[in-house]
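I'm stuck. Protein, please.
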Amino acid sequence: MEDIMYYMDTLFVLIAALLVLTMQLGFGLLETGTLRAKNAGHVAVKQIISLSVAALAFWAVGFGLSFGDGTRWFGTEGFFLNGSFTSLDWANVSIDIKFLFQLSFVAVALAIAWGGFAERAKLSAYVLFGIFFVAILYPIVARSVWAGGLLGSMGMQDFAGSAVVHLQGGMAALMATIILKPRRKTESLAGHNHVLTVVGGLVLWLCWFGFNAGSTMSVADGFFGYVALTTMLATAAGALGALAIVMVHRKKADIPTVVNGVLGALVAITAACAFVEPWAAVIIGALAAVATYGTSLLMAKYVDDPLCAFSVHGVAGIIGTLALGFFASPRLVDITGIGSAGLFYGGGLGQLGVQALGVLIAMVIAGGGSYAFLKLLDVTIGLRVTEEQEDIGLDIAEHGISAYGEIEEQPDTPTRLPKILGSSVSVMSPKK
């Protein structure tokens, strides 16, 4: 029976890891649609490069520093998967699968960071910063929370990474946005294909069940089903919460806002999915969506964050992490065995204090480390492409080919479309 459970858990976690890795496809579609056509190919192939860098850097160094046996602060063995990983002994799956699952998480954090680089960073910056982030920076907070470090020993609750994954990625994106400065506004900065944006958002939503439910790393007691439930409810509330706030504010059902509401809710419930009751999940999802929208408008006045990476992943990550200080249910705390009940259940301010400390540490380490390394790159090799390269687009500048090929412009003559339901429509071809 033990062998059967081992095989079932291993298969379950492998499937979860593959779902989370598929989030790279979701990010690729969402980013491509949200950005301009002249950068579409660059954004798409960047996902392949980013995932490849993450895999090798995490295998060589990052996984060992995060989870290998060693000190409270960092692992001293486990590099290249050689050594012991007693911090992960609680999961009844092979070390290979544990690595793949954790790799999928750090790859998501790195994909989030790229939001701040979009449409103006050199391709070389992706490679160099990716190595640093995955091998050195990310493991500091990951070990502190998930591998017996300071925050974990204090009982910090972050089930699947609102702080460890999303806040760190959001802070890195913010630092890149600050150092790179705004994009040149020689044309509209609007996204070119919001169908891709929506499809990317849906892919991320579906794959997120691997992110959250997979973090149980077991099918034995069926608890993964409960985690999936709270994830679904929070996300639905986020979508409708975003729709409501943008309708009130702009009188239009803005498509990117609805998608960002979905993502903000997913980010927030990632920490809380195993600790809160369904009603609380709905509140957390809706609150995160509204905060994502509000802060994206505020941030736009000061920085050019093309994908609202900090609002979606940073702000929502903070909300989801802090929410546990209020909403953590005693019943679920007993099941997970982590931390204590939240303030609304008579738990006092203790858990809220731990969660706030975790947020602060993640922001300082991810933000400070990212800023220092990106500044070093900026003064040495340079982070930003030239103005000419930015104007022609990174598809041509970095890859020598346009994602959509040459589009021949037509003269301004009416084009008659086929009759639809008995009527016809005339449109003008694009102007030269």
Q: What stands out?
A: The chain is about 65% helix and 0% strand. Confidence is low (pLDDT under 50) at residues 407-432. Residues 2-34 form the longest helix (33 residues).
